[in-house]
Design a protein that fits this description.
Blueprint lengths: L4 E13 L9 E13 L12 E11 L25
Antiparallel strand pairs: 1-2, 2-3
């Protein structure tokens, strides 16, 4: 399709939160994000039509070994980038 453009981008995120003066466990996480964008050209004529598509996905690569540890908070909003519960 004339004048169309597709791009695929990647972002890697690493977070290391080590609270040495508290009883909380260390938070060490890595994530990868993917962003796909497609922008088509416009049709010829009185009114031009086009199509834009955006798809995004984020994946946890490493949760820092929190799963299965006693005392590790598993709920969303527990100070980590990716919660361990499925919701």
């Amino acid at each position: 399709i004339e004048d169309s453009k597709a791009t695929l981008g990647f972002r890697t995120f690493y977070m290391n939160q080590d609270d040495r003066n508290s009883d909380r466990p260390r938070i060490d996480e890595t994530g990868q994000a993917f962003l796909f964008e497609y922008k088509s050209g416009f049709t010829e004529g009185f009114v031009g039509f086009g199509l834009d598509v955006i798809a995004q996905e984020g994946v946890r690569l490493d949760g820092g070994g929190r799963a299965g540890k006693a005392g590790a908070e598993r709920a969303p909003g527990s100070g980590s980038m990716f919660p361990l519960k499925s919701n």
